[in-house]
Amino acid sequence: MRLCYMDGNFLPFDRAALPLSDHIILRGIGVFDLVRTYGRRPMMMTYHLERLLKSASALGIENKLGVEAMKSIVREGIGRMDGDGEVLVNFYITGGDNFVDGCRFPDPRYFVSFQDLVLPDKELYVKGVRLFPLDRARLMPSAKSIDYSAALAKNSVDPGALEVLYCPGGGITEAGHSSFFMIKDGKVVTAPDDVVLAGTTRSLLLQILTENEIDLELRVPSLEELSEAQEAFITGSVKEIMPVVQVGDITVGDGDPGEVTGRIRKLYRENIPRWLE
Amino acid sequence: MRLCYMDGNFLPFDRAALPLSDHIILRGIGVFDLVRTYGRRPMMMTYHLERLLKSASALGIENKLGVEAMKSIVREGIGRMDGDGEVLVNFYITGGDNFVDGCRFPDPRYFVSFQDLVLPDKELYVKGVRLFPLDRARLMPSAKSIDYSAALAKNSVDPGALEVLYCPGGGITEAGHSSFFMIKDGKVVTAPDDVVLAGTTRSLLLQILTENEIDLELRVPSLEELSEAQEAFITGSVKEIMPVVQVGDITVGDGDPGEVTGRIRKLYRENIPRWLE
Q1: Are B66 and B144 part of one and the same domain?
Q2: Of the candidates A67, A83, A116, which is a domain's last residue?
Q3: ipTM of this complex prediction, to 2 decimal places
Q4: Which keywords describe this protein according to UniProt (chains A, B) (predicted)?
Q5: Which residues on B lie below 8 Å from A92 (Cβ)?
Q6: Shared domain check, A186 and A109
């Protein structure tokens, strides 16, 4: 079942359409954010929707909808989904038809997709995953724009890799759909907020690590360092904490998911109830 | 007047729509290319449409339409436009609904926009333009994807700049909507094909420069060099050859459009008839 909210109405997703004149189609001017549920309760909804508004602002899209109104739409859509399974919500803001003053999109459109949540294969957590390093950075790291063309094109080069890993100039920033963490000499290392998307799972995790007195370094780790690291993992709302055992030719640690990653994953899962809304 | 071709039909552009399920909307998977007319004859149509197919391929979109069939659509659409003014054609290929094997979009959609050509203000050629330097590169320089979010967001930083200029690590690659050229010590310098979009106007110009024995260097010029250069210009299908007099804080030459740029622009215009189809 897939449901859509648009212009005040809920309708089957496959019956919803956008005019060609919208700049999300003509020039990729669109942003989105996703919310998943646990026990049908949305996780970190406020954080996700506030990030959505920041993304819109970074692209010059002038949002007209408040976070509380957005929350009502998310809650109502979840309620309309059949059964009692978990739901994945994707909330979009488009550039709309009008582009003025060379920088403003004053008439955005909104649509929201509601679908059954599909979790990653459990095997990925047991065996760990491979990432494909790319010597590039996202053009606007602060915005979650719809542009995932580079993130999705990686598989033609390395079909076995789960995601691309952006490594501009050899420094690891973030993965195509996830935040990236390296564990080296007992410290957890991840790129600072100003060069990556402020991942929600990442943000929770940083808080949990601090509360549990696990050493943290906010800096861009290099690919060279990674070959001497003990463990690595990626994070995301749906995948939570997933071990990384290979990046291109580099085997991380002994090539198996590590103990510290396992412990951090357990800590994260224990803390989830704190952020359900 | 704006016309659209879609699914075998021509219809008013504002009546055409795409289903939300298309990945051009959901994840920015879409490519396009444009063709303009001179005397109602399309310029470099074959080159543009072949580049369109390369762009599609780079994003994993499996094109089903041959270049000759595309040409027929372009010609018919131009014929259907009212009056005898020039026409701007935008030919799109979308990712479609299906994404398989983690890298393929096997069911693309096609749509084509036909509209009256609007030329840049003549004043821009007389006074020259300012560009806004950005320390980033496009993620997939070889593909003309729909993602122009960074190119369009520049004006909030420098509203007077015409376009963004991508300068990753201080090396000048290309502008947001144009190819970039610097003239220094009698030589024309521009970035090689492997780091920029293979611009059509750029490609013609390289041929014309060679035929006219004007010295050419295919390498990435630096922002530092630009401050010692005599002239600079950008090229594009609609703008043709447009002088650049400022890049951020750097004034190019004496701050006025240069003589060599003027001569190159004249050469380009004289050669246009060779590439009408």
Answers
A1: no
A2: A116
A3: 0.94
A4: Aminotransferase, Transferase
A5: 25
A6: no
